[in-house]
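Slide 14.
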Amino acid sequence: MKKTVLREYAKLIVRCGVNVQKGQEVMVYADLDQPEFVQMVVEEAYKAKAKKVIVEWNYQPLAKIHVRYRSVTTMGTVAEWEKARRQHMVDVVPARIHLISEDPDGLKGMNMAKMAKARKMSYPILKPYADKLEGMQQWCIAAVPGKAWAKKVFPGERTSVAVEKLWEAILSTSRVNEDPIKAWEEHNADLKKRCDYLNSLGIESLHYTADNGTDLTVGMIPEAIFCGGAEVSRQNIVFNPNIPSEECFISPMKGKAEGIVYSTKPLSYQGQLIDNFYMRFENGKVVEAKAEVGEELLNTMLSMDEGAAYLGECALVPQESPICQSGILFYNTLFDENAACHLAVGMGFPDTIRDHHNKTLEECRQLGINDSMIHEDFMIGCDTMNIDAICAGGKVVPIFRNGNWAF
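Slide 15: predicted structure.
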């Protein structure tokens, strides 16, 4: 891939993604797959007047070794230096850039039950730091190709060709063209128009149906609004948390979901795949979950804490989205969730509450925003999906017909 194009992508992530501010610290999280591109991102952050940029590297084989040899107690213990590090992040509020490239099967065989126990130990200690940063930070998740990921997406190609094809797919769907920042400004304006219309309807619930058996009704929080594209931090900084992004999303009312929903794409969770699954909801909670692939992992995910089996997000994405139209199954939630309507179990988004900047985190949760240590998106959209909005007074407004916008 041409370095000039990659430089534009790095600039897009820094300037339009996290929107680095003068004097701000920046954290970059990356796997070991594209160090030259990480270098570009770091340099662009400094060009944007970042005070300091820190890169933290991840390597899936090491993660497997750590889980194999460390005890649950060791993994679940939060050292004092880690607490100090989290407090530093609360104090300085760095911008966060996540460059994902992991192998969708890279943690296959890892003891997930052991890892889950450790996370449950550490989460209550780490949660207060995360809560203090809620809504404060700019963050952006973007992608770069890893060799194993590229071979998963393009299995019939040589590794070098697969990586190049994955670069092309990432850049195309991320709108890295002659003027990426202008393209994103126009795209964000379109998403805002969609959200404004949805927010004008007074939606009380969404009813999903499809010919695969999906028949699910999800209740909305009266104070919640649909969001999409650019967001604004509590420090009044505009940023784009996902590159790419095609969704209009909302956090539903905890405890209000009835029916059954079937997945339409694989879910990569903790480096392993869950596929061909369904969830059945009663009183908002998953009471039954079955999968042809990864059923034990699916139920481990749903039992991570009390909120893990409740919904945290409803997202609307048309089949006409560029990612869906590419015909590529990415085996990566960042892309696959933007190819289809999706739901998420676990944590909801306080910033979907109207006027959330003038409310506390606890006030947002009291209104019905779900709280959990996980937030896992799974894809449910297909070309037979219909979605109706049940609005005030019982009025029914079509939102999706045959997988695409009905307005």
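Speaker note: The radius of gyration is 20 Å.
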